[in-house]
Design brief:
about 450 residues; alpha+beta; 10-stranded mixed beta sheet; 5-stranded antiparallel beta sheet; globular
Protein backbone atom coordinates (compact mmCIF):
# COMPACT_ATOMS: atom_id res chain seq x y z
CA UNK A 1 0.00 0.00 0.00
CA UNK A 2 0.96 3.65 -0.34
CA UNK A 3 2.02 4.73 3.14
CA UNK A 4 3.00 8.35 2.55
CA UNK A 5 2.58 10.86 -0.27
CA UNK A 6 4.82 13.92 -0.08
CA UNK A 7 4.13 16.81 -2.45
CA UNK A 8 7.34 18.81 -2.92
CA UNK A 9 6.18 21.24 -5.61
CA UNK A 10 2.85 22.82 -6.53
CA UNK A 11 2.68 25.24 -9.47
CA UNK A 12 -0.21 26.81 -11.39
CA UNK A 13 -0.58 25.68 -15.00
CA UNK A 14 -0.03 28.45 -17.57
CA UNK A 15 -0.10 31.19 -14.91
CA UNK A 16 -3.50 30.17 -13.59
CA UNK A 17 -5.32 30.05 -16.92
CA UNK A 18 -8.94 28.87 -16.65
CA UNK A 19 -9.92 25.89 -18.79
CA UNK A 20 -13.62 26.51 -19.41
CA UNK A 21 -16.00 25.28 -16.72
CA UNK A 22 -13.23 23.18 -15.13
CA UNK A 23 -11.28 26.26 -14.11
CA UNK A 24 -7.51 26.48 -13.50
CA UNK A 25 -5.15 23.52 -13.17
CA UNK A 26 -2.04 22.94 -11.08
CA UNK A 27 1.01 20.69 -11.42
CA UNK A 28 2.05 18.64 -8.41
CA UNK A 29 5.40 16.88 -8.08
CA UNK A 30 6.43 14.61 -5.24
CA UNK A 31 7.21 11.11 -4.11
CA UNK A 32 5.25 8.21 -2.73
CA UNK A 33 6.44 5.73 -0.11
CA UNK A 34 5.12 2.19 -0.36
CA UNK A 35 5.14 -0.91 1.84
CA UNK A 36 4.01 -4.35 0.65
CA UNK A 37 3.65 -7.63 2.47
CA UNK A 38 5.71 -10.24 0.58
CA UNK A 39 3.37 -12.96 1.89
CA UNK A 40 0.18 -11.35 0.58
CA UNK A 41 -1.26 -13.52 -2.18
CA UNK A 42 -1.52 -10.58 -4.58
CA UNK A 43 2.18 -9.72 -4.17
CA UNK A 44 3.56 -13.23 -4.64
CA UNK A 45 3.96 -12.89 -8.44
CA UNK A 46 6.71 -10.27 -7.87
CA UNK A 47 10.02 -11.99 -8.61
CA UNK A 48 12.49 -12.15 -5.69
CA UNK A 49 10.16 -10.21 -3.38
CA UNK A 50 10.65 -12.86 -0.70
CA UNK A 51 14.42 -12.22 -0.73
CA UNK A 52 14.16 -8.45 -0.25
CA UNK A 53 14.98 -6.81 3.12
CA UNK A 54 11.93 -5.99 5.25
CA UNK A 55 11.09 -3.40 7.93
CA UNK A 56 9.97 -4.07 11.51
CA UNK A 57 6.48 -4.96 10.27
CA UNK A 58 7.84 -7.50 7.80
CA UNK A 59 7.06 -5.29 4.80
CA UNK A 60 9.23 -4.47 1.79
CA UNK A 61 9.47 -0.70 1.38
CA UNK A 62 10.21 1.35 -1.73
CA UNK A 63 9.71 4.82 -3.23
CA UNK A 64 8.50 6.28 -6.52
CA UNK A 65 8.35 9.73 -8.03
CA UNK A 66 4.81 10.92 -8.77
CA UNK A 67 3.24 13.58 -10.99
CA UNK A 68 -0.26 15.04 -10.97
CA UNK A 69 -1.93 17.53 -13.27
CA UNK A 70 -5.27 18.35 -11.65
CA UNK A 71 -8.03 20.94 -11.45
CA UNK A 72 -7.39 23.34 -8.57
CA UNK A 73 -10.94 22.45 -7.50
CA UNK A 74 -11.04 18.68 -8.12
CA UNK A 75 -14.84 18.50 -7.91
CA UNK A 76 -15.04 20.63 -11.08
CA UNK A 77 -13.31 17.87 -13.08
CA UNK A 78 -15.03 15.02 -14.93
CA UNK A 79 -14.50 12.39 -12.23
CA UNK A 80 -11.75 10.58 -14.13
CA UNK A 81 -8.10 9.93 -13.35
CA UNK A 82 -6.20 9.39 -16.60
CA UNK A 83 -3.05 7.51 -15.64
CA UNK A 84 -0.03 7.63 -17.91
CA UNK A 85 2.37 4.69 -17.79
CA UNK A 86 5.57 6.61 -18.49
CA UNK A 87 7.82 5.23 -21.22
CA UNK A 88 11.38 4.73 -19.94
CA UNK A 89 10.75 7.51 -17.44
CA UNK A 90 9.40 9.93 -20.06
CA UNK A 91 5.95 11.52 -20.12
CA UNK A 92 4.12 11.85 -23.42
CA UNK A 93 0.41 11.82 -22.55
CA UNK A 94 -0.08 15.49 -23.44
CA UNK A 95 1.91 14.93 -26.62
CA UNK A 96 -0.61 12.31 -27.68
CA UNK A 97 -3.96 13.58 -26.37
CA UNK A 98 -3.35 17.35 -26.39
CA UNK A 99 -1.42 17.26 -29.69
CA UNK A 100 1.32 19.05 -27.76
CA UNK A 101 5.06 19.46 -28.05
CA UNK A 102 7.07 16.92 -26.10
CA UNK A 103 8.27 17.64 -22.55
CA UNK A 104 8.90 15.53 -19.46
CA UNK A 105 7.77 18.47 -17.34
CA UNK A 106 5.37 20.57 -19.46
CA UNK A 107 5.17 24.26 -18.55
CA UNK A 108 4.63 26.25 -21.77
CA UNK A 109 1.54 26.76 -23.92
CA UNK A 110 3.11 24.69 -26.71
CA UNK A 111 3.73 21.84 -24.27
CA UNK A 112 0.06 21.85 -23.24
CA UNK A 113 -1.09 21.84 -26.87
CA UNK A 114 -4.76 22.44 -27.53
CA UNK A 115 -5.57 21.70 -23.84
CA UNK A 116 -8.06 18.92 -24.64
CA UNK A 117 -7.53 16.91 -21.43
CA UNK A 118 -7.80 20.05 -19.31
CA UNK A 119 -10.96 21.27 -21.00
CA UNK A 120 -12.47 17.81 -20.52
CA UNK A 121 -11.57 17.86 -16.81
CA UNK A 122 -9.24 14.85 -16.50
CA UNK A 123 -6.82 14.41 -13.63
CA UNK A 124 -3.55 13.35 -15.29
CA UNK A 125 -1.37 11.15 -13.10
CA UNK A 126 1.98 9.37 -13.47
CA UNK A 127 4.22 7.32 -11.22
CA UNK A 128 7.73 5.94 -11.65
CA UNK A 129 7.71 2.18 -12.27
CA UNK A 130 11.07 1.33 -13.90
CA UNK A 131 13.92 0.99 -11.41
CA UNK A 132 16.85 1.26 -13.84
CA UNK A 133 15.86 4.73 -15.10
CA UNK A 134 18.13 7.53 -13.81
CA UNK A 135 16.66 10.89 -12.71
CA UNK A 136 18.44 12.66 -15.57
CA UNK A 137 19.97 11.54 -18.86
CA UNK A 138 21.46 13.28 -21.92
CA UNK A 139 18.60 15.06 -23.73
CA UNK A 140 16.18 13.58 -21.17
CA UNK A 141 15.76 15.74 -18.05
CA UNK A 142 13.07 15.21 -15.41
CA UNK A 143 12.74 11.45 -15.84
CA UNK A 144 10.45 9.55 -13.45
CA UNK A 145 12.23 6.92 -11.38
CA UNK A 146 11.53 4.11 -8.93
CA UNK A 147 13.77 3.27 -5.95
CA UNK A 148 13.49 -0.40 -4.93
CA UNK A 149 15.56 -2.76 -2.75
CA UNK A 150 18.39 -4.83 -4.17
CA UNK A 151 19.11 -8.43 -3.24
CA UNK A 152 22.68 -8.24 -1.98
CA UNK A 153 24.86 -11.27 -2.53
CA UNK A 154 22.79 -12.73 -5.36
CA UNK A 155 24.63 -13.27 -8.65
CA UNK A 156 23.61 -14.57 -12.04
CA UNK A 157 23.99 -14.21 -15.80
CA UNK A 158 23.14 -10.87 -17.40
CA UNK A 159 22.82 -10.37 -21.15
CA UNK A 160 23.95 -7.12 -22.75
CA UNK A 161 23.45 -6.41 -26.45
CA UNK A 162 25.30 -3.59 -28.19
CA UNK A 163 24.53 -2.15 -31.64
CA UNK A 164 26.05 1.23 -32.51
CA UNK A 165 25.58 3.77 -35.29
CA UNK A 166 29.11 5.14 -34.97
CA UNK A 167 32.31 3.30 -34.09
CA UNK A 168 33.08 3.51 -30.37
CA UNK A 169 35.56 1.71 -28.14
CA UNK A 170 33.56 1.76 -24.91
CA UNK A 171 29.89 1.17 -24.21
CA UNK A 172 27.58 0.98 -21.19
CA UNK A 173 26.30 -2.45 -20.14
CA UNK A 174 22.79 -1.03 -19.80
CA UNK A 175 20.06 -0.45 -22.33
CA UNK A 176 20.03 3.09 -23.67
CA UNK A 177 20.71 5.61 -20.87
CA UNK A 178 19.65 3.21 -18.11
CA UNK A 179 21.58 2.02 -15.06
CA UNK A 180 23.25 -1.38 -15.73
CA UNK A 181 23.54 -4.23 -13.27
CA UNK A 182 26.82 -4.37 -11.41
CA UNK A 183 29.56 -6.78 -12.53
CA UNK A 184 30.45 -9.43 -9.94
CA UNK A 185 34.05 -9.73 -11.20
CA UNK A 186 35.53 -7.49 -13.90
CA UNK A 187 38.23 -10.08 -14.57
CA UNK A 188 35.82 -13.02 -14.85
CA UNK A 189 37.33 -15.38 -17.44
CA UNK A 190 33.91 -16.91 -18.10
CA UNK A 191 32.35 -13.70 -19.42
CA UNK A 192 31.67 -14.08 -23.16
CA UNK A 193 31.48 -11.51 -25.95
CA UNK A 194 30.19 -12.53 -29.39
CA UNK A 195 29.46 -10.75 -32.67
CA UNK A 196 27.22 -11.49 -35.64
CA UNK A 197 25.99 -9.57 -38.65
CA UNK A 198 22.33 -10.62 -38.62
CA UNK A 199 19.98 -11.58 -35.79
CA UNK A 200 19.95 -15.33 -36.36
CA UNK A 201 23.51 -15.79 -37.62
CA UNK A 202 25.85 -18.13 -35.76
CA UNK A 203 27.73 -15.83 -33.34
CA UNK A 204 31.51 -15.56 -33.41
CA UNK A 205 33.27 -15.50 -30.04
CA UNK A 206 35.68 -12.59 -29.51
CA UNK A 207 38.74 -13.62 -27.50
CA UNK A 208 38.68 -12.55 -23.86
CA UNK A 209 42.01 -10.73 -24.08
CA UNK A 210 40.65 -8.36 -26.76
CA UNK A 211 38.16 -6.63 -24.45
CA UNK A 212 37.74 -5.70 -20.80
CA UNK A 213 35.09 -4.67 -18.26
CA UNK A 214 35.24 -1.39 -16.38
CA UNK A 215 33.29 1.82 -15.87
CA UNK A 216 32.36 4.87 -17.90
CA UNK A 217 33.29 8.33 -16.65
CA UNK A 218 29.80 8.65 -15.13
CA UNK A 219 30.31 5.46 -13.11
CA UNK A 220 28.14 3.06 -15.10
CA UNK A 221 29.57 -0.45 -15.67
CA UNK A 222 30.93 -0.73 -19.19
CA UNK A 223 32.79 -2.85 -21.71
CA UNK A 224 35.89 -1.61 -23.55
CA UNK A 225 36.79 -3.07 -26.96
CA UNK A 226 40.05 -1.54 -28.14
CA UNK A 227 39.39 -2.37 -31.80
CA UNK A 228 36.07 -0.53 -31.62
CA UNK A 229 32.47 -1.69 -31.98
CA UNK A 230 31.59 -1.64 -35.67
CA UNK A 231 28.34 0.10 -36.65
CA UNK A 232 25.49 -2.26 -37.51
CA UNK A 233 27.03 -5.43 -36.13
CA UNK A 234 25.34 -7.16 -33.20
CA UNK A 235 27.55 -7.66 -30.13
CA UNK A 236 26.35 -9.76 -27.20
CA UNK A 237 28.02 -9.88 -23.81
CA UNK A 238 27.01 -12.35 -21.12
CA UNK A 239 28.57 -11.55 -17.75
CA UNK A 240 27.94 -12.47 -14.12
CA UNK A 241 25.97 -9.67 -12.51
CA UNK A 242 25.34 -9.09 -8.84
CA UNK A 243 22.80 -7.47 -6.51
CA UNK A 244 19.68 -7.50 -8.73
CA UNK A 245 16.91 -5.06 -7.87
CA UNK A 246 13.31 -6.14 -7.32
CA UNK A 247 12.16 -4.75 -10.67
CA UNK A 248 8.65 -6.17 -10.41
CA UNK A 249 7.79 -3.73 -7.61
CA UNK A 250 6.89 -1.31 -10.40
CA UNK A 251 3.68 -3.33 -10.77
CA UNK A 252 2.83 -2.80 -7.10
CA UNK A 253 3.73 0.91 -7.26
CA UNK A 254 1.30 1.40 -10.16
CA UNK A 255 -1.47 -0.53 -8.43
CA UNK A 256 -1.10 1.13 -5.05
CA UNK A 257 -0.68 4.69 -6.35
CA UNK A 258 -3.88 4.43 -8.35
CA UNK A 259 -5.72 2.74 -5.50
CA UNK A 260 -4.70 5.61 -3.21
CA UNK A 261 -5.96 8.28 -5.63
CA UNK A 262 -9.22 6.42 -6.22
CA UNK A 263 -10.18 5.32 -2.73
CA UNK A 264 -8.30 7.12 0.08
CA UNK A 265 -10.62 9.81 1.45
CA UNK A 266 -8.10 11.78 3.50
CA UNK A 267 -6.37 15.12 3.26
CA UNK A 268 -3.09 13.54 2.19
CA UNK A 269 -4.79 12.61 -1.09
CA UNK A 270 -4.50 15.72 -3.33
CA UNK A 271 -7.79 14.81 -5.02
CA UNK A 272 -9.60 14.99 -1.69
CA UNK A 273 -8.28 18.32 -0.41
CA UNK A 274 -10.94 20.34 1.38
CA UNK A 275 -13.73 18.13 0.09
CA UNK A 276 -13.99 15.39 2.69
CA UNK A 277 -14.94 13.01 -0.13
CA UNK A 278 -13.33 11.90 -3.36
CA UNK A 279 -14.75 13.23 -6.65
CA UNK A 280 -13.19 10.31 -8.55
CA UNK A 281 -15.45 7.76 -10.21
CA UNK A 282 -13.14 6.02 -12.68
CA UNK A 283 -9.46 5.38 -13.43
CA UNK A 284 -8.29 5.00 -17.03
CA UNK A 285 -4.74 4.03 -17.97
CA UNK A 286 -2.83 4.64 -21.18
CA UNK A 287 0.45 3.04 -22.17
CA UNK A 288 2.16 3.13 -25.53
CA UNK A 289 4.71 0.63 -26.87
CA UNK A 290 6.82 -0.48 -23.86
CA UNK A 291 4.22 1.06 -21.53
CA UNK A 292 1.35 -0.68 -23.31
CA UNK A 293 3.15 -4.00 -22.90
CA UNK A 294 3.59 -3.16 -19.21
CA UNK A 295 -0.20 -2.76 -18.88
CA UNK A 296 -0.76 -6.16 -20.49
CA UNK A 297 1.78 -7.66 -18.09
CA UNK A 298 0.11 -5.97 -15.12
CA UNK A 299 -3.30 -7.38 -16.03
CA UNK A 300 -1.84 -10.84 -16.61
CA UNK A 301 -0.26 -10.96 -13.15
CA UNK A 302 -3.41 -9.78 -11.38
CA UNK A 303 -2.34 -6.28 -10.33
CA UNK A 304 -5.67 -4.63 -11.15
CA UNK A 305 -6.88 -5.61 -7.67
CA UNK A 306 -5.51 -3.81 -4.62
CA UNK A 307 -4.69 -5.48 -1.32
CA UNK A 308 -8.19 -4.65 -0.05
CA UNK A 309 -9.74 -6.55 -2.96
CA UNK A 310 -10.91 -3.48 -4.89
CA UNK A 311 -10.69 -2.88 -8.64
CA UNK A 312 -8.06 -0.28 -9.53
CA UNK A 313 -8.35 0.52 -13.25
CA UNK A 314 -11.77 0.77 -14.90
CA UNK A 315 -10.40 1.23 -18.42
CA UNK A 316 -7.13 0.36 -20.14
CA UNK A 317 -5.77 1.66 -23.44
CA UNK A 318 -2.78 -0.47 -24.50
CA UNK A 319 -1.40 1.23 -27.59
CA UNK A 320 1.07 -0.31 -30.09
CA UNK A 321 1.83 -3.15 -27.66
CA UNK A 322 0.94 -5.97 -30.05
CA UNK A 323 0.49 -9.38 -28.46
CA UNK A 324 3.45 -8.86 -26.15
CA UNK A 325 4.49 -8.24 -22.58
CA UNK A 326 8.15 -7.76 -21.59
CA UNK A 327 11.19 -8.00 -19.33
CA UNK A 328 9.41 -6.44 -16.36
CA UNK A 329 9.40 -9.03 -13.61
CA UNK A 330 12.28 -11.48 -13.35
CA UNK A 331 15.73 -11.53 -11.81
CA UNK A 332 18.05 -9.12 -13.63
CA UNK A 333 15.10 -7.80 -15.66
CA UNK A 334 15.85 -5.08 -18.21
CA UNK A 335 12.47 -3.51 -19.05
CA UNK A 336 13.71 -1.41 -21.98
CA UNK A 337 15.10 -4.31 -23.97
CA UNK A 338 12.65 -5.90 -26.39
CA UNK A 339 12.85 -8.04 -29.47
CA UNK A 340 13.05 -5.98 -32.67
CA UNK A 341 13.74 -6.69 -36.30
CA UNK A 342 17.53 -6.40 -35.92
CA UNK A 343 18.28 -6.01 -32.21
CA UNK A 344 17.55 -7.73 -28.89
CA UNK A 345 15.82 -10.64 -30.61
CA UNK A 346 16.41 -13.04 -27.71
CA UNK A 347 14.96 -10.83 -24.96
CA UNK A 348 11.50 -11.80 -23.61
CA UNK A 349 8.80 -9.82 -25.42
CA UNK A 350 6.24 -12.08 -27.09
CA UNK A 351 5.18 -14.47 -24.33
CA UNK A 352 2.24 -16.85 -24.07
CA UNK A 353 -0.61 -16.20 -23.41
CA UNK A 354 -1.13 -13.65 -26.16
CA UNK A 355 -4.92 -13.69 -26.10
CA UNK A 356 -7.24 -12.52 -23.35
CA UNK A 357 -9.25 -15.75 -23.22
CA UNK A 358 -7.74 -19.18 -22.41
CA UNK A 359 -5.88 -20.96 -25.18
CA UNK A 360 -3.46 -23.88 -25.41
CA UNK A 361 0.14 -23.60 -26.58
CA UNK A 362 0.98 -26.78 -28.47
CA UNK A 363 4.72 -26.09 -28.20
CA UNK A 364 5.04 -25.65 -24.42
CA UNK A 365 1.85 -27.38 -23.30
CA UNK A 366 0.79 -24.26 -21.38
CA UNK A 367 -2.83 -23.20 -21.17
CA UNK A 368 -4.33 -19.91 -20.06
CA UNK A 369 -5.42 -16.42 -21.02
CA UNK A 370 -4.12 -12.93 -20.35
CA UNK A 371 -7.17 -11.97 -18.28
CA UNK A 372 -7.49 -15.18 -16.23
CA UNK A 373 -6.52 -13.52 -12.94
CA UNK A 374 -8.66 -10.45 -13.60
CA UNK A 375 -11.66 -12.66 -14.32
CA UNK A 376 -11.08 -14.78 -11.21
CA UNK A 377 -10.81 -11.62 -9.09
CA UNK A 378 -13.82 -9.94 -10.72
CA UNK A 379 -11.80 -6.83 -11.65
CA UNK A 380 -11.57 -6.99 -15.44
CA UNK A 381 -11.50 -3.46 -16.93
CA UNK A 382 -12.76 -2.24 -20.28
CA UNK A 383 -9.83 -2.64 -22.69
CA UNK A 384 -8.90 -1.02 -26.01
CA UNK A 385 -6.01 -2.59 -27.92
CA UNK A 386 -4.79 -0.23 -30.67
CA UNK A 387 -2.06 -1.25 -33.08
CA UNK A 388 -0.43 -0.02 -36.26
CA UNK A 389 0.88 -2.08 -39.14
CA UNK A 390 4.28 -2.13 -37.43
CA UNK A 391 2.97 -4.34 -34.62
CA UNK A 392 1.56 -6.82 -37.13
CA UNK A 393 5.01 -7.14 -38.65
CA UNK A 394 7.08 -7.09 -35.51
CA UNK A 395 5.04 -7.46 -32.31
CA UNK A 396 2.65 -10.39 -32.80
CA UNK A 397 -0.41 -8.12 -32.92
CA UNK A 398 -2.50 -10.69 -34.83
CA UNK A 399 -2.22 -13.05 -31.85
CA UNK A 400 -4.44 -10.67 -29.86
CA UNK A 401 -7.40 -11.82 -31.95
CA UNK A 402 -6.42 -15.21 -33.46
CA UNK A 403 -5.58 -18.65 -32.16
CA UNK A 404 -1.94 -19.42 -31.29
CA UNK A 405 -1.27 -20.80 -34.76
CA UNK A 406 -2.74 -17.74 -36.46
CA UNK A 407 -5.15 -19.90 -38.44
CA UNK A 408 -8.48 -18.40 -37.38
CA UNK A 409 -10.02 -15.49 -35.54
CA UNK A 410 -11.20 -16.05 -31.99
CA UNK A 411 -14.06 -14.60 -29.97
CA UNK A 412 -13.10 -11.46 -28.04
CA UNK A 413 -14.23 -10.92 -24.44
CA UNK A 414 -17.24 -8.63 -24.02
CA UNK A 415 -15.03 -5.99 -22.40
CA UNK A 416 -12.41 -5.82 -25.18
CA UNK A 417 -12.16 -3.86 -28.42
CA UNK A 418 -9.35 -4.22 -30.97
CA UNK A 419 -8.46 -1.44 -33.44
CA UNK A 420 -5.94 -1.45 -36.29
CA UNK A 421 -4.65 1.89 -37.61
CA UNK A 422 -4.13 0.59 -41.13
CA UNK A 423 -0.95 1.46 -43.07
CA UNK A 424 0.55 3.40 -40.15
CA UNK A 425 3.88 3.20 -38.36
CA UNK A 426 4.71 2.61 -34.68
CA UNK A 427 4.39 6.29 -33.75
CA UNK A 428 1.99 8.93 -35.11
CA UNK A 429 3.29 11.02 -37.98
CA UNK A 430 2.63 14.57 -39.08
CA UNK A 431 2.10 16.55 -42.28
CA UNK A 432 4.50 17.88 -43.39
CA UNK A 433 6.74 15.00 -42.41
CA UNK A 434 9.74 17.23 -41.64
CA UNK A 435 13.14 17.47 -43.22
CA UNK A 436 13.86 15.43 -46.34
CA UNK A 437 15.09 11.97 -45.39
CA UNK A 438 16.29 8.91 -47.27
CA UNK A 439 13.31 7.00 -45.90
CA UNK A 440 10.64 9.57 -44.93
CA UNK A 441 8.29 8.56 -42.12
CA UNK A 442 4.63 7.76 -42.64
CA UNK A 443 2.77 11.07 -42.14
CA UNK A 444 -0.53 9.61 -40.83
CA UNK A 445 -1.30 11.20 -37.45
CA UNK A 446 -3.43 8.72 -35.50
CA UNK A 447 -3.39 10.82 -32.32
CA UNK A 448 -6.82 12.12 -33.36
CA UNK A 449 -8.14 8.56 -33.35
CA UNK A 450 -6.70 7.84 -29.91
CA UNK A 451 -8.38 10.97 -28.60
CA UNK A 452 -11.71 9.89 -30.09
CA UNK A 453 -11.30 6.47 -28.53
CA UNK A 454 -10.74 7.98 -25.08
CA UNK A 455 -14.05 9.81 -25.47
CA UNK A 456 -15.68 6.57 -26.66
CA UNK A 457 -14.33 4.62 -23.70
CA UNK A 458 -15.58 7.22 -21.23
Amino acid sequence: MLTQLEITSREPVLDGKSFGAVGPYETLLGSAQFAVDPNHVLNRPIADLGLAPVDAQGHVTFRAEVYLLKPVVPSRGNGNVFYHVVNRGRKNLLTVFNLAGGANLPTTAAQFGDEFLMREGYVVAACGWQADVPPEAPDNPDLMTLDVPVIHGVTGPVGCEIVVDDRVKEHSLGSRYHIPYEVANENDPNAVLTVRAYPYDEPEVIARDRWSLGRLADGRPSIRFSEGFEPGLIYNLVYTGKDPCVMGLGLAATRDFLSFLKYEEREENPLCEGLGALPIERVYSFGSSQSGRFLRHLLYLGFNQDEAGRQVMDGVMANVAGGARGSFNHRFAQPSRHSSGHTDVFYPTEQFPFNDLPQADSVTGETGGLLDRCEAQGVTPRIFYTNTSTEYWNRGASLVHTDVGGTQDVVLPECVRVYHFASTQHGPGEIPAGARQTWPPNPVNFRYVLRALLVAMD
